[in-house]
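ARCHIVE CARD
Drawer: 12
Card no.: 0347
Subject: one protein chain, sequence and derived structure
Cross-reference: see card 0346
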Amino acid sequence: MIDTDIWQVVLAGMVLAALVGGAGWSLYTGLALRVRARAGERDNARLWALVRAAPARAMVVRADGQVELSSHLADWLGLQAPARDVTGLSAGEEGLVREDRDALAHAIDVAAKAGRGFRLPVRAQGSARLMLAVGERAPDALGATGGVLVWFFDATEMQGEVARLADRAQRLEDAYTALTGLIEAAPMPMWYRGHDLRLAMVNTAYVHAVDASDGEDVVARQVELIERSALGGPMAQAAIARDTGAPQVSAMPTTIAGARRMLRVHDVPLADGGTAGFAIDIEELEQARSGIKRFGQAQRAMLDRISAGVVQFGPDRAMVFCNQPFRRMFAMRSEWLADRPEFDRVIERMREAGRLPEVRDFPGWKAERREWFRSAEASIEENWHLAGGTHLRVVAQPLPDRGLLIIFEDRTEQVQLASARDTLLRVRTATTENLFEAVGVFAADGRLQLWNNKFRTVWGFSTLLLATHPRVDALAREAAHRLAKPERAMLIAELVRSATADRLQRGGRVAFADGRHFEFAAVPLPDGNALLTMLDISDSKRIEQALRDRNEALEAADEVKTQFVANMSYELRTPLTSIKGFAEMLHAGYAGPLSESGTGYTAAILESVERLGTLVDDVLDLTQGDAPPVRERIDLKPAAEAVAAGLAAAAADKAIDFAVEAQESAGVVTGDVRRIGQAIEHVLRHALAETPPGGRILLHVDGTDEGARIVVSDDGPGMDAKAQARAFDRFARHGFNGSGERALGLGLPLAKQFVEAHGGTISLVSEPGQGTLVTIALPRT
């Protein structure tokens, strides 16, 4: 029993102890949880403070499409109340721009399914704020498994900064591009060296100067423009510029395109520790300086050889140069000039030599000349009249360096020549006034400069008009009404212009309305003017007209004579025909047999009638020879052979060897076959008449593409020069040869007339005792 009670007491104590221990543990645990809760509250408050102060706002999109966002974010998005889903982010005129909302919804859908984050700019309707939406799959701690967490950042200020930086970057890029283009387009070599002084960039001019393929090749091979020298070359100068921070300039020689050039090299330090350089070709400048020096020496040598005196003063008014004529003109000794005397001393020395004008106030006069150094005029010119009749022309030229150049020209001879010229002008005026011709001198611009009284009276010009020196056009209009043909007045103006402008001498004639006639001529003068002369030829014109009338009367008489001869030729043919017929009848015995002497008489009558008929035909041909020939095709070879056959009997009667050479090359000509045959016959008859018995005559006919040729030659006595001169003259008196026949008649003149009517030519070559050769040339057409 006691044991039972004890165990009960022990059990109760153990229970009580357990209860006390559990209560203590519970109290401890509660206190610990309380501490944790307070710490969690503090962390939560801090986190919410950070969230509220953060530049971003979060939105959770759950897997079912529901969204969780704060009112602050809704205000950013332009919503009156938080949206429930993504579609609600844009409602009417509230929320996001619809295109941005659709793009955001698509990005959220891709992030939820593929787990791929996104960054997307979005804008609220009617707001200038730009937001950057950054999304990723939501962590499980948010309790939105399969959802998307989207952070919205206010990127408005960031956008402005980006835009400003982008604009600045664009300007810098444009400036860099322009600078690069300028460097590339520069005609001088330019380069850039890094801090290690190695070439990092070169322009096109540098590439061409070193004969490289491109800039990269130059940089890769480190091709220097300037050769290295004992002083270190271009890199030494660049190192000095880099180390001292001051630009360096020096002249260095180099070889470009096989030619030795002198360059002025500039090295400029840059802020990055490198250097920029460029080279200017000063070879031409050096040559120009040398050329200027040589020019100055040559100029002074030339000034020593001119006749004018030249002296030059420097900015300090000391003499720096004077030529030999100046020394002679003003009696300056070389030893005195060696001290470079000042302007005032030179003027005083010139006065001592008596080579200055006489003036009352010499100090004032000298002070005025001293002002030449500061004169604003380009040059000052004076004339000095010295004792002894010397005339000096003085030209003072202020120089750019505030020096002075003075030229002294001795014009004494020119003044004397001008005086002589004035005398000559007076003589010329007196001469022109007494000329029989009318004379006028016109300047190059056509204005009348000089004239004599004859010129004025011929045209009837007033003195007031001529005093105005009118142009030739005005004079022509004024004189037109005095001419028989007023339009001829402009011819005078044209001739004057031709003489002044074209330098041509031309002339003509003009008739006045009162019956006078003048011959005029426009002659170019050496000074560019023109001389117009007019000579009265009225008397000569009347004589000329009388001679012309007489000539016309003679031509009319010749025409009457020619017509008379032609008529008489026709009239003579009738009785000649009758005489010839009756003589032939008597000779044939129709009137009974004749005695031997009667037969001889009738034969003589027939021969004389034949010869007289030939003469009548020749005279008739002469009167009709000017008529144009009939044009037809003539085969010249058979035509010439036919004429030769007709004269073969006459040649045989005189025992003359008559040879004919007619070649096929004679061809065809165009003309009158009868006239051509007559021309050949007349030449052959002339040869028969000239050739003595037993002689030889040759008829040769040939031709070329241009024409045909007929040659008749004989071995007769020939003709002297006098006979040859009148061989083709139809009016010449002809004699007789040794056999009693005519030495020359109408045959050759008629042949010449017929040949020339066909456009051909006939020529005769003869020597006494050597025979005669006559050549006829006929064109094809």
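Annotation on reverse: The first strand starts at residue 56 and ends at 61. The radius of gyration is 66 Å.
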